[in-house]
Give the backbone structure.
Amino acid sequence: MKKITPVIIVSSLDVQRGGVTKASIKRANLLAEHHKEVIIITFLYQQNHNQIIQQLYKQKILNKKVTVYNFFEDLKPNKSTRKKKRQDQKVEEKGFLHFPVEDKKTEPSYRYYKDGLYVKYKRFNPNGSLKFIDYMDESGKRKRREEFNGDGLLVRTRYMDNVNNKPRYDQYFDNKEECFLSVHVNPKTQKEGRVVTFFDNPREYSSIYDCHLGWLNTILNNYEYPVVSSELRRFTKLLVNVEHENIKKIEVLHTSHLSKPYSNINNIKPGSHFLFENAKYLDKVVFLTNEQKQDVETVYGKQQNFTVIPHSTYIKDENILKGTVPQDAKLAVTLARYHEDKRLDEAIHAFKYVIEKVPEAKYYIYGYGEMKDQLQTLINKLGLQNNVYLKPFTSSPQQAYKEAACSILTSRQEGFAMVITESMAVGTPVIAYKIKYGPSDIITNGTNGSLVEEGNREELAQKIIKVMQDEDFRSELSSNALDVNERFSEEKYRRNWLELYQ
């Protein structure tokens, strides 16, 4: 029997993770139970990549049989030699005056002056280690940034465009703080362009894609029978063009393939169009929902290598399912990144209607992201400070669901929306906008949850109000919601993926 090596290509890994990362880690852990080695390949630069991976192992989020390769880390010529920390990694620095930045208390930051000039800016991590230093020109404009990892080593220097203050050239450093890679960056689009490597046989690449492809071929040639899955469209071209005589190629669609407004099945994203036009070069294309597969087949025709494997439900703590977690009949929750695609503003606006009928109602939004301040501003503007709360990311999602009367989904698009099954698995019904894709495959309207036409905030509010006020209705939805544990069982999920990898 062939000794295959499962290989999963994702952008990055992290302890706080979104749906694609969570699904990829779960599958890697499953495959690690049945294969000698499993590989995860990542391409995103992360300042503290090694610390993140060790944390994933330490917290038992990732099986130690899973080996993680990162493009920037693996290319380093010197990975073990440690250089002594620089003197400028402390707050106090001889010869400089420094002043704290008042609005950066969670990540302490300071401005530094010398001879009457503002010359640099330092930001520190919460644990006190240096995160980065910005250097200024004579006019006080940023000219370059130096970034440091958790060991205090310089890992990247970014040179700024003097017009728009965006990166235009990046240098990457190994553990001797010697530059091994440089990347030209378009300061307007922030797209990476020409790449030069400075180790072994130095080489210039016309694009970072060419460098990625060469590196990926090198990694895969270490394995006799690699079964490689791409989890994001940005890696489809790599998957199609990678060369290996014994390779098996799998594409997994975690997100919608449609362009805005994500409802016209003929309006295909460019990356997804490339995928479906080149699907014949792949062994399998895996969809998470039947609805998405059917929409693609309507446009591109049926293909034998198309298949559907939905995500599964999984109860980590059976006590949650048994009802030992107290439920608040006046609480609604959402677990999501603070990102525009999640459209959390829709749910917040709808909650303004909810409290008119249920003044004591509460809405907890557990998450993280760049829109936190914007969402808090909206909450304040609507006068919902005592009803709607932005909560930190939670590592116990099903407990958060179990405590609530319902959960809310208002995303623009999803590939499956694991948050729906996670909520229903503990008997908490979901009130969701009827988007592509996920809700219609999982929720039966009025039976185990509610489907609402996109943008109808008043109807969304009415559904929330009914669940909160009608105990019998809430109990019925809750009881019926539990059927996801059978429909999307862990056993079915495991069987389907293990068969696919054989």
